Every structure is written in structure tokens, then in C-alpha cells.
Amino acid sequence: MRKPLPAWVDISIMPLINIAAAFVVAGIIIALIGENPFTALAVMIKGAFVYKGALGYTLYYTTNFIFTGLAVAVAFHAMLFNIGGEGQAMIGGLGIGFIVLSLDPILPPLLVILLAIPVAAIFGAIWGVIPGWLQARRGSHIVITTIMFNFIASSIMVWLLAGMLMAPGQMSPETRHFADGVSLMQIHHIGNALGWPMARSPLNLSFVIALIAAVAVWVLIWRTRLGYIIRATGHSEKAVIYAGHDPARIIMIVMAISGGLAGLMALNEILGVQERVILNFTSGYGFTGIAVALMGRNHPFGIVLASLLFGALYQGGAELDFEFQTITREMVLMIQGLIILFSGALALMFVPAAERIYGKLASADRSSDTRKGEQNG
Amino acid sequence: MAELWLQFVLTIDATLRVATPLILCAMAGIFSERSGIIDISLEGKMLLSAFTAASVAALYGSPFLALGCAVIVSMLFSLLHGFACITHRGNQVISGLAINILASGLTVTVGIAIFAQGGQTPFLMSEQRFSAITLPFAETARHIPVFGTIYAEVISGHNLLVWIALLSVFITGYVLFRTTFGLRLRAVGEKPEAVDTAGISVTLMRYQAVLIAGFLCGIAGAYLSIAHGAGFVREMTAGKGYIALAAMIFGHWRPVPALLACLMFGFLEAIAARLQGVEVPFLGPMPTDLILVLPYVLTVILLAGFIGRAVPPRSIGQPYIKER
Amino acid sequence: MTVSSPLAKSRADLPFAVSMSGICKRFGAVTANDHIDLNVLSGDIHGIVGENGAGKSTLVSILYGFYTADSGTTEIAGISYTHNTPADSIAAGIGMVHQHFMLVPNFTVLENIILGYEGYKQLSKSMDQARHMLSSMSQQYGLDVDLDAQVGDLPVSLQQRVEILKALYRDARILILDEPTGVLTPQETNQLFDILRALKKQGVTILLITHKLREIMAATDHVSVMRGGRMIAHLQTTDTTPDQLAELMVGRPVQVKKQWHKANKGAAIVSVKDVQLTRSKTQNLLSDITFTVHAGEILGIAGVAGNGQSELLNILAGIIAPTAGHISYHDHHIDAGNPADPQKIKSLGVAHVPEDRHASGIVLPFTAAENAALGYEKEVSGGYGHAFLSPQSLRARCAKLMQRFDVRPADPNLKSSLFSGGNQQKLVLAREMSDTPSVLLIGQPTRGVDIGAIEFIHQQLIDMRDKGCAIILVSVELDEIMSLSDRIMVMNNGRIMGLVEQATANVKDIGLLMAGVQ
Question: C70, C311, C374: best mutation site toward chain A, by most A Cβ within 10 Å?
């Protein structure tokens, strides 16, 4: 007898089963290639957590995924599938470039940084709100539009970075370095200053901003009127109209928030690490955000956990390059694809079996209860 | 003048070469989406089959065997897409995206494991590839003005797969609009419950549609690596699957208009390649990046209804659930 | 109360057209069909009545092969038969006209008819053959439809004919019609029954599923009654009465008598003048709508679905703006140049229970507590302006409403989709009545609601009216309109066809007005 799963199983056990399935398939592929999947796993865990400075790198990647994961999740709550995180992050980085390059000769670094943070969000928001507007007011499908917008953003970046923004006297498509001091402080500097020696890593204050963003998204979705209406929009636009709100406006607001969060990802890469705008700094993190959101069930807490897992995969995956001849960090891309497959497209595959097992367990419980009842009666 | 004419003819020729994988993928997309299954995994399937074709050709030397294997691999991933979207009612966009990302990782990982060349396959010799078919009298005709140049440059000198791509357009049109199978396939994308109550399996129809899509993507992938190119390179599809998707939308999910859209997008790419580095008065070097992005921009504008309206099949993206 | 056994003997030694016995079907924890027996005489028009959720649709879906029964046997024309798919049933001569038409809107009539039964691989051959066969068939049964018209452009009554032709083209000898009259005027309903009688003459057996007793009495030879997943009775139609059938359907005596009693009319508080709504230059959805509603009065709006009632209700609620004309509530005026949004309308003391509960009235995946605040979010804010929501006050508000309207189970944290239709509707009603509105706009108050809740809801409406609320009631159930309204306004094609006082109202006249005959 099948029995519907209780909420706690659905949000804790089922995601774990789906991730386990992804890892099992990845393990089989590694074995087929002729390597030992357990050795590979051990290398990755060591690379992600054990080596000196490894944790810092892991958390640095995690930062990117929290931003892009939150971006996807916020849109998901309104049933909008924002595949455009990649492009929105690029444009966010471009915004940082514009503001910093034009102001760093005039203004003090701290002020420039304080301006650059909202500008990153605003630029990302603009790149998100246009597809939102096209869906809300012109009826074009957000999935297709955001895909197209990724390509358009990427072309704009190539055009600008190889053109008017290219640093003079250089051949590679990137801007000049930002002025000294225009960067987000790295955590190991802070640690060392406070007397806690830390290994060097690119982990910077963006990580803190990412965590604040996660809390803010939680409050937005579950504790505000706007969040309530966003969730209602996701389930039934008609109900939202009936309640007196304009779903088109809500869609645009959601896409602005989503794009803004994706835009903030650029803080970590551009203002935290590179200190100049380079081509392809997003490296597919926008797409990883989709896997993160699916795995984290669109809940900020789940997203932080999923980001940590992906951070570890990316950092540990880099270690694979050093240890193995035949497996590389592209392995991680494969695992990412499998995770999207199992926790996204095949999310329901294991549910019937789980319901059967749960039904059996529950009925076993109940029959022992009734027996007790009979004895008492 | 003659030089300019030759340049033009050569651009048209290049257009056809560039458009071939787009045409095949657009037809694949039409089959899948007409049946109600969104297929953004055209890109991934094309990448996987490009890799398969190049690997098989490099290892066994036969382009036909390579083509066959490429088609099979592409169809296997279509089955996976169907398994997720049809059998398990998964989100079609997510499934497609998963296949695309999986394809990126898998091709490089397996490529390194087999060939140890950083994800590439070895360079293919001409007998391992589909080579150009020179039509009779091409060389003699070359000297005839206008028609001769067109015959020699545009019509002659293509490989087999180019011809298959063009043929696929007419087959797609015939199957969709002139056969019973096509009627059912279109119905299943519009109103699956009507098909179900008429006693036809929605599941079976949709599986057939995605398998046909896989078949066509497989040919497209093989074209890239063993006909147009001479080996597999990482990410060699470079967004062509998405351009094909855009062309399909541009063609309103109809084969001939989609063909024209593919040719238009192919022409833009061909012309951008020709104009690379050309100086334009006042602008400096030709902004070829901006020409290459035109297909995407045009699609956005079309979808927004500024130039006509693109109406997708009514039930697209929705898994079919018998109502309780 | 007489509950006869299934018809024991078949007519003139012919086997039963359909004989089902011991049919069981469960959906999860719900038993939709519990050991159902059904015998249908060949060439009979056989009715099946029952309330919403009695299991009628499940039973015929099993007969049609759309669902598979968990247990039980079926014989078609005396031959034992296991259905697995609709294809098997079609082959066995069973055709079905579904409640929601199974037609592809952008296909032609001909394409729809042949779909799945084409005969040839090549489409043109199949079409030619079908065209030939259909022309003689439509003459034979009086079913005239343009074969090359797009189905989506046809009115629903013609779409229904396409469905019947589709079944006949497949050589259906047994035709199932599931709630076929919901979208028809009384006159169109009579035309449909004429077609059914013509089919009967040709030897077609007809199974008519409905919840309208009037139609059972008018059209059928035999009738089977279902209640709560069980088969309750099989009767000869001439031997029974609507009262008896109603009692069998509900399982207890019900008052078929009107609940209506005369009210004390107050001042006019709703006034609608010359309201127009146009979709395009040529298409008028509403024209020249003018009426007033008084405090302590129920104005019923009757009409076949899709004749402008929904648009009118949405205009009154501020969801869509009229193209022209004006509306006033008390002293507040609204017109095309000065439109109001639903929030504004609410603040005027106007409550709205929408027609389509599942799409508009509630958000199904939300908890009851969340739905109890839909449109009233500001009343559950947790301070700091109205930006935040307090989960505690959400739940407290819901608990209070649930108690007042007897919503069961009284659990604010339960997902709304897990409540029955009746309890969902009570929750919506409770929410809308919570601020004691002076005007209530209510659409299809009892759609998908069981009889117990119907009585409760009707009583609430009468009580509110007696307390001085002005109620505008839109319903496609003519019986509901007639039993509750003080005045009945009939709409056809976006116009008011007439206004009838309760005292002088009768079904025939209203039916003619609904059909657009003045």
C-alpha cells in the first residue's frame, strides 16, 4: 500500500537519494574509464577540505553558487525559470567595471566599493528585468529569452572588452587593473589582522554578503507580503489578479531581484579576486546555480548547503587534475549534469518506491498499535 | 565586379555549409516540440554525437559506421530525455539542460580517457570523413558566367550530409502534414487528451517524436566533426543547438520557414566570417561579434511579438497526466 | 423506498448492450466505485444520476477503457470483455462524448473526426474516404456540420455534434454522454435529446450521465442512481419521480421546495449603467448593461456559460475595466476613465466569491491559513507598515473563520487542496464575509460542492440577504438561481434579455430568454 510521504522525508531523505543516484552513476562512469571512483572521491574530499587553504577555496566557490542559486530559486518561487543567471552575472560585472573604472581615479576606494556593490545588483537586475518584461507584457517565454540573453550578454562582453574597455597596450580582452584598495577584503587578511593565522585563499567579504543575501531571501519569501504574492503568482496568476495585484508587475519585480542576486556574483570574482573585468569570469556558475537551487529545493538553507557541496566539488575537482592522468575537473561538470537530471528532471522517479516502503513501515507501525489497543480494550 | 560576384557566391556556399547542422537540428526540434516536448538538449545531443562520430572514425576509420554510432548515441540521450519528461513527467527544460551540461562534461572526460589529447580527438584523414561530392561537369561549367559559378561553387562540392539535411526538410514537411502519423503527432502536441481518448498512446507518440529528433541531431553532430570538420574539439557546437532552436521558433514550427531562418542565420555567420577584420569607415574594425549575435536578438524581438507572433504548440512543456 | 435489483431480464432475448458487475476502483484512499453492477438494455436511453463525486464519471471511464477497474467484469452485447485502453473500447463499439470536449481546436472538423481512425497511412486518402462516409451519416442522423471549419471557431453545441459524429464514425453502437448539457441552453438541450432519440431509432444504445433530474425525466427510459461510489437503485423512468430520485441521490429526504421567502428590500446600493465591454472593434462581450440592486435583495443572473456573466462579475469586482459605462457602489462611482482595482472595491465593502474557485478563489498548494488571507494580506501584517506577514496572525485569523463557517478539518496548516470542494468553498465564503460586506458578488457558489454544503451555503446567502446585504448571484444552474433570487436577470450574448420577478418566474420563459428569444 502506497502512502504519501510526510514533509520531513520529502525535504531531507528524497534529495539525498537523488544526489546519491547522481554520484553512483558518476562513480560507474569513472570505473568504466578505468579509475577507482573511491580513490577519486578521497582525492576530492582532501582537495576540498583537508589541504591547507583548501577550505578557503571551497568557500570561495560556494559564494558564487549561493548567489546564483538564490537567483534561480527566487524566480522559481514565481514559477519562472531563469536560465539567464550567467548573462546577468556578466552584466553585473560589467556594471562594476563601469563604475570603478570611471570613479577610482577620483573617489576614495571605500566609497567606490560601496557604490560598486549596488551597481552590480542593479546591472544584473536590468538584465533580468528585460526578459521579465518580455514575458509579462509581451508574452515571450522566459526560458527562451533568458537563453538568448546569455548569448547577447556574452557578445556584449567580447565587444566591449576587446574594444573600448580593453586596457591600453594590451592584447588580451580585459580592462585595466582597478586602483589600489578597490577590492573586497580577503578573509585571510582579516583573520591574520585579528590574530588568527589563516592560509591564503581567494575567499573574501562577498561570502558574508552571500550569507546575508540568503537570510534576506528567506525573509522575503516567507515573511513578507511581497513574498506571499510572489508565491501566489507562481501557483495561480488568476488568484493574484483576484486578490488585487498585477502579476505582470510581480513577474518583473521577481526577475529584477533574481537578476540582481546573479549580478552580485560578480562581486566575488571581479571585486574580490580579479580586480579588473575579464572575459568569461562567470565560467558557467550561473548554470550551476540551477543545480544548486534544484538540490536545495529553492530554500535558502538548502541552497547554502548545496552551494557548499558544489564548492567542494569544484575545489576538489581541481585536485583531480593533479592526481590523475585520465580524470579532470570536467568530471565535475558531468556530476553537475547528473545532479540536475536526478534532482530536477527525474525528481519524482524514486517517489513511488519511497511511498511504498514508507507505506509498509507505517502500516507495520499501525498494526502493532491496534494490537496494543485490543489488549487494553 | 567579377571578384565581388565570386565573393558573394562563396558566401552563399559557406552559408549552406554553416546552415546544415542548424537545419538538421531545427527539424529535430520541430518533431519534438510539435509533439509537445520542449527540446533544448539539441545542443547536447549534437555535441555528444559529434564526439561519438569523431571517436569512431578515428578508431575504426569508417565514416558510415561513425555516422551510425553518432545517431545511436544521440537517440539514446533522446530516450533519456523521454524517460525523464514522458515517463516521469519531469520538467522538460531542466531535463534538456541536464543533458547539455552532462554532454559538456562527458565528451571531455571520455575524450581524455580514450585519446589523452585534452578532450580532442585525433585529426581525421580524408578517407575517415565524408568528403565533398563534386558533381559532373563542375569544372567545365565553372567558366560559364553566373550559372556556371553557382553550379560549381554553391551546388557542387558538398558532402553527402548537406544533401541529407536539405532532404530532411522535405521529409519533415511530408511526414507532418501529409501522413496520418503527422496528424497524430501534431494532435498530441496540441491536445494530448484528444489523442488518448481516440485510442492512441500519447506516451508512444511522444517517444517516437523525441527519437526522430535524436536521429536528426545525431546526423548534425556527425556533420560537425566528420564532414565539415576533421575531428572533435571541446564545445565544438558552440551554441548552434540554441540557434537552431531560435530558427525553429522563427519558422513558427514549420519546416520550410525554419529552413529559411536557418539559411538566414547561416548567412549572418558566413558574412561575419568574411568581414572579420574589415575596416568600416567611422566604426573602425567590423563589429563581427554584433553580427553573430543577431540571430539571438532577432529571436527575442520575434518572440516579443514586434514582428509577427510565434505561437507554439498548445500543450508544449506540459507532461500529460490523465485527469483523476 | 424501493430499491430494485439490476434489471434481471433483457428485452426480446437480446443480450444486454452493457453488463458490468462487481466493478471496483480505488484512487489512493478514495473508493470511487464500490462493487458496481449495471445492466443496460440494447437500444435504450439509460440515465445515470448522482451527486458530484458519486462515481459516475469513474464508472463510464472504466467502461470506455480510460481507467482500468481494480476488479469486476464487463460484458458488451453478451460477450465477456476486458478493456485495457480506449482503443479496445472503440473496437468493441463504445463511443464517448466527454464533459470537456476531446477536440483539437486548431484542426478542422474532418481532421478531428478521423484522428486515430484514419484507415490509411496517407492523410489525403483517409480524408477523402471520411468525407464520403460522413456526408451520408450526417444526413441519416440530422447532424449537420461544416467538415472544413476549424473546431475552435465553432459554438459549443456544434462542437458537441462533432464529438457525436466522431463516435459514430467509429461505428459506435453504445454512446456514452458525460454531463452533455452543462454548456447548452434548455432549447439546445432539447435538440440534443432529439438527436439521441434519432440515434435510438437506429439501434444505438445511449448512456446519459447527468446530475440534472429534469433531464433524466425528459430523455431516459431507465435510470440508475449512484451515491458515494455505490450503485443505489435501478428504476424505470416512468415509475419514478424527481423527488424520489433526489432522495436516492442524497440518501435522505431533501427539500426540493424553494428556500426563498420574501425579503425586505432596502435602498438601491449598486447601480450599473450602460456598461460595455469590447474585445475588438467587431466583438462586443457586454453591451448596454443597466440594472440596480437593493440592500436585502438577491439578484440572480441566469444564462448559458459564456454569455457575458463572467465578464460582468469581473467588472463589478474591479478585475477588468469596462470599455464604457459606469458603476456605483453607495456613493462611489467607477467608470472606464476612473477604473477601480479589486483592493479598492473591497475597501468599499464589496466582497467577491469568484466563479472559478480553483483558479482564482484559492491557491491550491497554499495552506488554509495562507488562503484565508488572499486579498486581505494587510490584515495579517506583522508591523513595519504592511511589508511583513505574521504567520501567527495568519493562523489565528484562519482558525476563527474556520470555526464560524464550520470548515472541516479545522486545521489552518493543512494544504488547501486536501479539503473537499464544499469545505474549500466555505473557506472562501468565510474569508469574503469576514468584514460583513454590504455587497456580495458571488459566482457559481455550489459548483463541485456536495449537497450538505450546498444547503449550508444557500442558507448563509439567505441569512446575509436578510441582514441587508445586496447579493449578485451568477450561476449556470437555473434551479439554484430560481430557488434563491428575488429577481432574475437573464443574459444572452452579452446583453440583458429580461428581468423576471421571483413570483412570475418559470423555466420555459427563462429558457427562451437564455436562448436569446425575447
Answer: C374
